[in-house]
Amino acid sequence: MMLLGQMSLGDFASQLVNWVWAPPLFFLLLGCGLIFSVASKFVQWRVLTHGVGCIRGDYDNPEDAGQINHFQALCAALSATIGLGNIAGVAVAVSVGGPGAVFWMWVVGFFGMALKFMECTLAVMYRDTRDVPDPSAPDLIEADTESRTLEYPGEPPPAPGAVAQARGEVRGGPMWYMQRALVDPLRSRGNAGWMVFKVLAVCFAIATVLNSFGGGNMYQGWNVADVLSKNFRIPTTASAVVVSILVALVIIGGIKRIGQVASTLVPGMCVVYVAGALYVIFANVGEVPRCLGMIVKYAFTPAAEGGAFAGVSVWLAFQWGLKRACFSNEAGEGSAAMAHAAARTDEPVREGVVAGIGPLIDTLLICTMSALVLLITGVWNRPALGTVAAIDGDRVTVACTTDVPQRLQPLYHDAVQARAEMAVYVERERGNEPVAVAVPVAEFSQSGATGWAGMTALVLDLGRLRDSDTREFSDEDQANVGKIAVGQPVHLNITGAKMTAFAFDTSVRGFGKYIITLGVCLFAFSTMISWSYYGEKGAEYLLGPRAILPYKFVFVVFVFLGMVLEKFSVVYDFSDATTGLMVLCNLPAVLILSPGVLRAGRDYFARLDPGEMPRTRR
Question: Rounded distance, CA 137 to CA 549, Å?
Fold first, then answer.
């Protein structure tokens, strides 16, 4: 193992992911999901039945504490979870972890419903309902100052008997239920154990802030800029300015505005994406049983190498499915608990039931749609378009193959004519993404036949890689170029969202460009606005309300930087690592506090089932 001092930042980030996402974390996640499912008598059923009535507004009471209704809270949480993980993340999971990874994503999604129920119920039970001023809302501060209802540092105290204005501002999430249910009671009794949970709460808040800048911000922004630039030639700086302004306009209004925007945006973007996926699925409906069979089969047996797929063991399929599902639906991570803590309700269990709908929509619906599109179209294990035939200095000649499925031939032909990037696979390891050298096509030659059948050879110019204006040619790139050898396979360089777009194109040429661009832009924007709130709550816990406005300013700056800077895998790896750290900090507290949630659940459902629960809408 390399010493820390000898590691590059990229190596350290990659190693950190391996340290965090180790077997103990996998079994902690699945174990808690199983325990909570059984102990709650499979609350998933309540989510599917009672949850619908809750988000419909059947039990809404505008007099309850909170800032947003049940539907807005769910949409705010979903806007964070339904993001690039549903498009690019699923493509990575399937192309590297194989079809079996999808099965383990389903398992995490199912148990994730119980995890979300537990942590979001706790978030409402132990939220801080003190009406504190939000520095980013100056009109409210001015009104508070005039009426002297709130205390401000350096100001005289409010008049005796002054009542705080009922704005219902709340603070909640894992750091707050650790603080109010564990740290404060233990410290008041003189039990030194409070320090352990204080450290967990602080670490969780720090990881949340870091993740909000990485996976919840820069990673999302870079993908938006990349897809707009490549598909529509929109300058990166222009898209960065527009997106930064839009994000700022939303997040300055706090959770109320985020909830309002999310409740409009989330349903629409889900319908559009699912409709597009269903079109591809129904166009190839005969392939669905075979694909579902592969998902189940390769969850329990190793998947062999084939085409762009390097093969995978059962353990690695399990690992990829679990990691991608957790990154996508955030169950066990505790992030959604911060959005649901702002719900307007006096029944914590009710909000927990609403929260359980999140993994159902995110993983069991949206992710499954993406996975089926990739599997049905055969893009996940697509064949190489040729092999390296000769190397002459910087010129690499590729002999094209005609052994390409009919549905892919027009797309391969279009990509070569457009001089798209090709990837020479120089190293392949089971269960890992291939090491590849990506170079655009410089020349191609054709015989008299039309279409792909007439394509005979390509020429890749490595000099373009060295002289590129868009990325630095690193020592690692030089080392990989030196590994290129005759006989190595050459594939279209499509990964992540590009692979999903390519899969859509197999049904309607050019369709993927529009559906994925729209999906990436909407999903990424919605993720950014909700993760800004999560990071804000983390910063507020660490530094107090005065940190809110500076945090929002820095967040918007990072949106811009993430869109104009070159992509670097370090951000992605650190986001994976901080996601795992949030799980490690959150789940021990949820386990300890779970008996209280289960008691509250029994009491709530004992009142619900006989019809004793008051309804505001019938």
Answer: 9
